[in-house]
Fold this protein.
Amino acid sequence: MEPPAVPRDRLDGWTLVAETTERPFAAGPVSVTAATTRYERETPPPRPFFFASRLRLSPDTGPNPALTRLVESRAREGFRDRLADREITGLEHRDDRSLAVDDPKASRATLSTFHGRCTADGERVPVEALLAVWKRGEYLLAGGAYPTGDGVEATRQAVLALVRGVRPPDRDGVGSERSRR
């Protein structure tokens, strides 16, 4: 399963650090498979990161309102767990809002914002994290986290631009870092 495409022209300064395919949920005949790419910026810790995931549900039922609410809820839980794995603690879910993505064939995304803290060089550093979930025949997730110190607005806008540009894999000629290998 291919991960979603991330626009190459928006990845300047971001390095692909991981690509995974995993099954985060399976119960009886129902399962979810996620193909994910993760990027980081080469900065002093804590490093900003960005990820993009594509979900495949089996059996394929197609997106619907009840399933979308479940996917959004589980995605927020899973994202919180991933942030905790990165030692971001004291997470608070601040809000949810609608976000337009660049793909005209996609739904609007639900963007969730979280605030927490991590330790870098012995200091507690405030962190903001964003998670977007939307549909385009399947579910796509994207987001990231970054320290909220100097340059936070530029980093926030860079992460949001990456999120908005995520599309299903290479069907639309967007291209990605992965497709160049």
Observations:
- Strands lie at 14-27, 30-41, 49-58, 89-99, 109-120, 123-135, 139-147.
